[in-house]
Amino acid sequence: MPRAIFEYTKTVLKKVSFDVELFCKELEKATRRLLPFELEELRIWLHQFTANKPELNVCFAVIN
Q1: Burial of 25 (0-12, 13-18, 19+ CB in 10 A)
Q2: What is the pTM of this model?
Q3: Per-residue pLDDT for 53 more than 70?
Q4: Helix crossing, 2-15 with 20-33: angle to 10°?
């Protein structure tokens, strides 16, 4: 089940990436739901996903 939550989190983050504030809120929710090793995977995924979306970099403070 935890794996499904991780995949769902990535899907939600992709869908809300048009709005920085909403993206940060969803990222904050993810930090409460995911397991520690999944958070590390999410950090890696975020660096790849936001490589061409510099406006989302302000949300890294939520996960770090």
Answers
A1: middle
A2: 0.89
A3: yes
A4: 170
